[in-house]
Amino acid sequence: MKKDRGLLIVLSGPSGVGKGTVCAALRNHDTDIQYSVSATTRNPREGEVDGVNYFFKPKEEFEAMIKNNRLLEWAKYVDNYYGTPRDYVEETLAQGKDVILEIEVQGALQVRESFSEGVFIFLMPPSLKELRSRLQGRGTETKDLIDSRMTVAKEEIEMMNKYDYVVENDEVELAVERIKSIVTAEHCKKERLIEKYKELAEVE
Ligand SMILES: Nc1ncnc2c1ncn2[C@@H]1O[C@H](COP(=O)(O)OP(=O)(O)OP(=O)(O)O)[C@@H](O)[C@H]1O
Ligand SMILES: Nc1nc2c(ncn2[C@@H]2O[C@H](COP(=O)(O)O)[C@@H](O)[C@H]2O)c(=O)[nH]1
């Protein structure tokens, strides 16, 4: 029997809302979701590992990836490039496995053009004050960079109506449960199942 394609899940939300934290918690649940590793030109943070957190690339190499169509989407975000390697996503979906992309809004809108059947989730902070406090608490950016990220955050929040679902990340485990429920519901959508059960509907 032909294997169904996996579901493409796009998780966006302002920097510091907790996308990485929620995805890390989701990995502790038995979901079989695969995680795409992005490429970026930004410098690694303390503890980040090349090939695990990101593929860290020099600008020229990233631009070559764009030119050679090796990215499913890419965007410039606060002075650095970020992008999703195409092959991993396409191969994993073709194997019937779900893939999650943790990306900002410009990239998500590009993905929407080629994967309209994907599920697009926007993670929301309880408030802007809490968002700033999470960014400050993470301690990975200077005050100026936090200000730049907060400016982009407000623009991104204005785009939440472009998404299929909005999930508040008030508590990590609650956000994880909400995302798991969305994924389960998407798997039960009739558009995904009509083809699979077509034969059962035929009269004997
Ligand atoms: N529900 C939550 N309550 C309190 N703190 C949280 C919550 N979720 C995440 N955090 C904290 O907020 C900070 C930012 O989280 P995280 O790095 O996961 O955000 P992000 O959205 O992935 O950011 P970026 O887009 O910059 O990669 C971290 O210090 C994390 O521990
Ligand atoms: N369009 C894309 N955005 C991405 C990708 N990988 C990460 N991101 C987003 O960039 C910002 C900043 O990330 P940080 O690690 O420097 O804090 C954040 O919103 C990420 O979600 C990608 O492949 N494409």
Automatic annotation (TrEMBL):
Query: Molecular function terms in GO for this entry?
Result: ATP binding; GMP kinase activity
Chief location category? cytoplasm
Subcellular location(s): the record lists: Cytoplasm
| UniProt cross-references to InterPro entries, sorted A to Z | GK/Ca_channel_bsu (IPR008145), Guanylate_kin-like_dom (IPR008144), Guanylate_kinase (IPR017665), Guanylate_kinase_CS (IPR020590), P-loop_NTPase (IPR027417)
Keywords on record: ATP-binding, Cytoplasm, Kinase, Nucleotide-binding, Transferase
Q: Which reaction does it catalyse?
A: GMP + ATP = GDP + ADP
List residues of the Guanylate kinase-like domain.
6-184
> What EC number(s) does the entry state?
2.7.4.8
Q: Which residues bind ATP?
A: G13, P14, S15, G16, V17, G18, K19, G20
What's in the GO CC field? cytosol
According to its UniProt entry, what is the function of this protein?
Essential for recycling GMP and indirectly, cGMP.
Family (UniProt)? Belongs to the guanylate kinase family.
Protein's name according to its UniProt entry: Guanylate kinase
Q: Which gene encodes it?
A: gmk
